[in-house]
Amino acid sequence: MNYLVHILAQASAPTGPDGNPVIVPNQEVPEAFFGSLPINEIWDKIVNLSWMQAMVFVAFAIIYLIYGWRVFKALVMINFAALGLVAGRFVGTKLGSPLWGGIMGTVCLALVSWPFMKYCVSVLGALAGAILGGAIWRTAMLPDPLMWCGALAGLIAGGFLAFSSFKFSIMLFTSLQGSVFLTIGGLALLNDYPNLGAYLAKAVYSHVFILPILVIAPTVAGILFQQKLLKQEDSWAIE
Questions:
Q1: Whether pTM exceeds 0.70
Q2: How far apart are CA 186 and CA 158, in angstroms?
């Protein structure tokens, strides 16, 4: 990975009189490549996945994108269990026991999510809206320092969406999660092909809007597809 970053830095660096690139010390890749999006960290996580892990991501993506609306209650519990694990381990670390903190956080939030399902869907819809709003802001090449404006607008819209259109809120967060899983798994599998992997890495590092587009497009497709399936489900109740 470091070799690839070095090659990218050489390709974008200014050239000297002899035509050779001039590398600025302690600056492998120009800051303009990244902006406020940690592309380097994201790409490192993707390329370090094994093919088996990538296939798991793709499998979960298919479930979320196609049948997320059917099993949304289970998915909400899983999401809140994961949030509880993260929060519990953080608090447990402060108290000297991250293991028990993670266990307690996972169990508590998973159990709480069931009786307060609509509010939990609202929380997940708000988070999905924030991510989608930031992605749209980045794709539109708007100023990076103000990307929080797009995320905040998406957060508010996604949060209130659950109370105005509960079904759409479910389709939003399930489609977004499925899209993220599909992007991660798909890129990890394609990266196994050396030539294609190098091309993808160059595209991701050179154009910071590539990753947001790869998330937005499947999200929209997933919402439209789930809406089509919903019209054929007369007996499906989510209230």
A1: yes
A2: 27
DSSP codes joined into one string, 22-35:
-PPTT-SS-GGGTT
In a domain, 103, yes or no: no
Neighbour-count burial of 106, counting CB atoms closer than 10 A to its CB (0-12 exposed, 13-18 middle, 19+ buried): buried
* Rounded Cα distance, 71 and 97, in Å: 33
92 in any annotated domain = no
Structure token digits, residue 82: 């994961």
CA dihedral 198, 6, 182, 130 (to 10 degrees): -150
102 located within any domain:
no
The pLDDT profile of the chain, 239 residues, written as one tens digit per residue, is: 444 444 444 444 444 454 444 444 433 443 333 345 567 777 788 888 888 999 999 999 998 988 888 888 889 999 999 999 999 999 988 888 888 999 999 999 999 998 898 888 888 988 998 888 888 888 887 777 778 888 888 888 888 877 778 888 888 899 999 999 999 999 888 888 877 877 887 887 777 788 888 888 999 998 888 888 777 665 554 44
Q: Which residues pair with 15 in a beta bridge?
A: 21
Structural domain boundaries enclosing 172: 37-69+117-228
Contact 87, 64 (CB under 8 A): no
31 in any annotated domain = no
